[in-house]
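Narrative of activities, Objective 1.

The group set out to show that a structural description can be obtained from nothing but a protein's sequence at a throughput compatible with the screening campaign. Below is one input-output pair from the validation batch, recorded exactly as produced.
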Amino acid sequence: MSKSALVLGAGGFIGGHIVSRLKREGFWIRGVDLKYPEFRETEADDFLIGDLRDPLICREVIDQRFDEVYQFAADMGGAGYIFTGDHDADVMHNSATINLNVVEACRRRNIRRIFYSSSACMYPAYNQEDPENPNCAEESAYPAAPDSEYGWEKLFSERLYLAYGRNYGLQARIARYHNIFGPQGTWCGGREKAPAAICRKVAEARNGGSIEIWGDGNQTRSFLFIDECVEGTIRLTRSAFSGPVNIGSDEMVSINTLVDMVADIAGKVIHKIHISGPTGVRGRNSDNQLINARLGWRPSMTLRKGLEKTYAWIESQVNGTAPQDFSASPSCESSLLDVGANDYARERTAVDALPG
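Output recorded for this entry:
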């Protein structure tokens, strides 16, 4: 009999890629989200449209034991969504409610192994003021001081899953994602992350043209390609280590460098126009010492190689040359470039269709 998995947020970017990986391994998969995947057919055996903020829906979709549960569902977006303060109540309420419902429904079904996707946004802002020397080692999380309500909710939910582990034997596995990117992720509309937004703007720009960037572009980040994220997630979920642990690249670059790299891939000369806008912390980079020590693994793909794959896919979306059944509209309205922090791992998961 094949193993079974439940993927919450399966209509989103990382959730969709996890479903594909598990199918290749022979799993029977149930996916849950508010929407179907945007750019391809789901490979889940059973896909349910449902709002995980409703405890009754949670109990209906978690109606049996699963060998593995992956929880990606969250209300989130890029810097323009997270850092304006306009969505703080929704972000905290929606995501916390989902996690409270999910962990309790899993306890009632005696489900043991559950992966929870946290974020590097939970790290203290005071350790990320120097763009050249950020401190994102796992033990640096306390004293807690995230720079957004999104980060505070992630920290709360980490502690929620760990508490259920101590009190009820839940085998939670927690990863702090650092800026995941790649094909089949949101690339326009206002919730896209920095690599996707930059790829889109470069693809839309003429050679010798310009694009707008929030801030001075000297803020630093690291970006992890989706295939590496999936590999690290699977390894952590099946390990004896609960985490929390960073899953991210330690190849740190400035946003200006990221723009230059995408422009070079595109074969274009692109000028940068710096404008005011939310930028998040000044520096962030994944510290991979712990994951290497505990799992014997760390990401190895270069940023450029991942960007080459991502730019080719986004360019096909912009030009309307992608398969028409699942390509986003080429007329998708452009938003200001999110250069502040592509700090959020899941895209368009189980609550971001909500108004506001």
